[in-house]
UniProtKB/TrEMBL annotation:
This is Auxin-induced protein 15A. Belongs to the ARG7 family. InterPro entries: SAUR_fam. It comes from Coffea arabica. One of its GO terms (biological process) is response to auxin. It holds the Pfam family Auxin_inducible.
């Protein structure tokens, strides 16, 4: 449980760094609405923008743990990368949307 909480805290910090624009630079995350974040999924690293509230759901936390096991905290896309198929991710988000 403690490891998962540490992973979530680090994921949130990574999101803050990704979403917060740096002085003198143009943010590439301006298309992410407040209360959402971007993740990269699948072999082609397709980008999805999802609600931050998903971070609290046990099914999504399992994906975060899986991402930690696969990539550690060095994600190839610079953002949060989820190592599952796009179909699986779409099905999961559909379930989470219906709750």
């Amino acid at each position: 449980m403690g490891v998962q909480l540490a992973g979530i805290a680090q994921a949130k910090e990574k999101l803050r760094q990704t979403i917060s624009p740096k002085k003198g630079s143009i943010s590439k995350t301006n298309d992410v609405p407040k209360g959402h974040f971007a993740v990269y999924v699948g072999e082609t690293y397709r980008r999805f923008v999802i609600p931050i509230s998903y971070l609290n759901h046990p099914l999504f936390q399992d994906l975060l743990y899986w991402a930690e096991e696969e990539f550690g905290y060095s994600h190839p896309m610079g953002g949060l990368t989820i190592p599952c198929s796009e179909d699986y991710f779409i099905n999961l988000t559909s379930v989470l949307n219906s709750l």
